[in-house]
Amino acid sequence: MALLSLLVLSCCSSTQLSRTLEDMEDILSADELTTGDVINGLKEALVQGSTKAANQASALDGYFGNLEIRIPFPPEIVKVETTLRDIGLDREVDRFILSMNRAAERAAEKALPIFSSAIRSMTIEDAWGILKGEDDAATQYLQRTTSDQLRAEFQPVVKDALDTVNATKYYSDIIALYNALPLVKQKNPNLDEYVTVKAMDGLFVLMAREEARIREDPLARTTELMRRVFSAQD
Length: 234
Known about the structure:
The chain is about 70% helix and about 0% strand. By secondary structure, the protein is mainly alpha-helical.
């Protein structure tokens, strides 16, 4: 408790400090929680949420079968999709969209070890900010601490997967078909970057959904420690 108080003191005004310490004492006194209990309970929640998100995203149809995170035709070239569908090339466009989502599902397999490392590195300040933060504070923590590494790990996997599932070829064919049309502006955005970013975004959407469940629904708290920590916030 003394260590946590010192950490809070270093970053709060006197008014903020008084209010924060009162909140902290209320939570730690509930069911005789210790600072370690709070940190470990939050880590358990993060492990549960990130594992579920990564497993859902990396499953077959994890992206393609979920309208909330399905990766659509790149919006900056949506006119390409419209034009090609108008001339009867729906099958080619649909095949390309499916291949992008398959690439994201493969890349998502890399997420869990990265999330696990960030969770192990959580500090007392991180834990307190998550517990007293917004409904997606844990998701924001993972997004803040893992995005650079996720991007570095995802991009080569996405590139390889796009090649493996022929998305790169489909994309090249589609762009070539479009660019061959008369009076159109030439298009050629970076497909690897687009799919990488959308794959990451989808993961955090799933993570935020699971975090909200844990915060709102006692039945979603699958360990005794999680139940004790979050019941103090209910």
